[in-house]
Amino acid sequence: MPGRDYRALVETNAGKARAQRLHLVRDDAEASLCGIPKTTLGHGAAELVCPDCVEWLGRRRAVSGIYPAVSREAAP
């Protein structure tokens, strides 16, 4: 199911201190959970995950669990 997988990416145009954190981005999203545009993120070597992304992941999953998935089939 698209949109349920997250990727951990680093900022490609950030300074060394900021590029050492991974940011969580859902496959169908335009930005990381903490708001960094997907176009400025890429693959890299980092060991720490952004604490804002970790916090938002829990919030996002809690809200997503409340609402049932919408059927994408056309009504007759």
**Biggest sheet record:** 4 strands, mixed
Stretches where pLDDT falls below 50 for ≥5 residues? none
Secondary structure category: alpha+beta
How many individual helices? 1
Query: Numbering strands along the chain, what is their spatial order in the largest sheet?
Result: 3-1-2-4
Please provide the count of β strands: 4
How would you describe the oligomerization state of the chains in this entry?
single chain
What's the pLDDT, averaged over the residues? 78
How far the N terminus sits from the C terminus, by CA atoms, comes to 24 Å
Shape: elongated
| Rg from alpha-carbon coordinates | 15 Å
> Beta-strand level of the residues, as a percent range?
15-25%
Classify the helix fraction into a percent range.
Answer: 10-25%
The number of distinct structural domains comes to 1
Order of helices and strands: EEEEH
Give an account of the 3D structure:
- This protein is an alpha+beta fold.
- The chain has one domain (6-64).
- The chain is 21% helix and 21% strand.
- A four-stranded mixed sheet has the order 3-1-2-4.
- It is elongated and about 45 Å long.
- The mean pLDDT is 78.
Short description:
The chain has one helix and four strands.
